Amino acid sequence: MFLFTHTIHIFFILKMIDSISLQICSIFGLCKKSKFPGTLASLASLIFSILVYYFLGKTFYVFLFLFFLIIGFWAIGQIQKKNGKKDHQWIGVDEWIGIWLANFFLFEFNFSLVQIIFFSSISFLIFRIIDIFKFIPPLQNINKNQNQNATAVMLDDIIGGFYTYFLMLIILGFYNLNYLYYSFFLLLPGMVANATPVFLKIKYFNIPINEQIFGKNKTWRGFIGAIIFGSFSYFILVKLNLVNGANSFSLIILVGFLFGLGAIGGDLIKSFFKRIISIKPGESWTPFDQIDYILGMIILTYFFYHYTFSQIIFLLILGGTISALAHRLGFLIKINTSKQ
Predict the structure, then answer these.
(1) pLDDT tens digits, one per residue of 199-225
(2) Are residues 116 and 23 located together in one domain of the fold?
């Protein structure tokens, strides 16, 4: 009798979990009632995000975004266990999160309610155009991936949200040519470090760091060379007053070292995770192939530059775009084995 009761109890719990995850994924059934579920979910998120931002403030807005992000991943994962790993048309929580992320641009301004509604509506239109036509290369690559797990489904709209945020700050004049100029030079040491293993062809230290963990293409030659050339490029940029740096020689060397180490370290960590999920060396893993070195660089130099959210997004999109273009050029001239 106890076993039977226990089994029934478990059955009802599982049914409840299925029901909750379905309600979350479909925005409480909203996306199952329309031929345009993505647009409907985006519109609902637009209205709710405006209300939360204006009446409850920035802190609560951030808290809810993180909450939606966590339960969104969980709910999509639960749905895919039962219905298969694909981006089901009635899943709208990813669009909900994408719009919520895009509207973080509001944090940089002191808008009235009318201005919030107006500019958020422009943000909504940009996000829907990006999400529907997927003309941004990372989105094209993600959607070509046959394994549409929860990460792939969410990543598509998270990237769309980031690009919408980026474009809104350009439209509103927050990102300008000076911002571009400074950010490019700040990225340069990381880009130099990231490119060094490809072009450094000396015969010394050309042995894998750990083939099992990082793959055969990650060598001590590339690792050491990346740190040296990344550090040196930062030193030159500071001396030419192209980036803000410390007056102390030792601190300049330390920060330069961290730029180089962060860039190549980010690449190594990405390679480690590629091995875990069985992606072969040289195969594309969008968008992490484009931004791994930027994330590593930002993390290790944050203590000195204290990057803001808007700076981080700008660096990721600028650096990621440059990296993607460089890889495509490398593919055309037979340096790389994939376009990325």
Answers:
(1) 887 777 789 888 888 878 889 999 999
(2) yes
